[in-house]
Input
Amino acid sequence: MQAAVGEIPGEYCPGEFSVYGTDPADAARRIKLIGTAQRVVSGGWLFSSVIVVENSAPIRSVLTDSYAALGLDWDPATAGAANDLVPGLTVQDVQDAVIAAYAGHASLRHADFGSYAGVDTREP
Output
């Protein structure tokens, strides 16, 4: 799979910093894999992203209903998951790759943000 940054014609939540994958079997087929959002205010900056890894049917269904209710056009073929393009890819595979990529640019340490936010994230 090839990945690139840029807007796909007809994508949901269009943006110039979307990350999309190209189907190795069909170079014309592009699927939005990561949506990014950022906010800049005086004294602060937030950048976030959401990676869709598996089970693309529910997100496509929600987007279809939402866009129809809003009267917005979009191409449902642009919504998918990374494992639509790389069968067998798991959330753990993507997590490991993201952590390895970040570790190449900065020192990382584990933090339990769930507890910080007042949410118990420990296994039952």
Notes: The chain is about 30% helix and 25% strand.
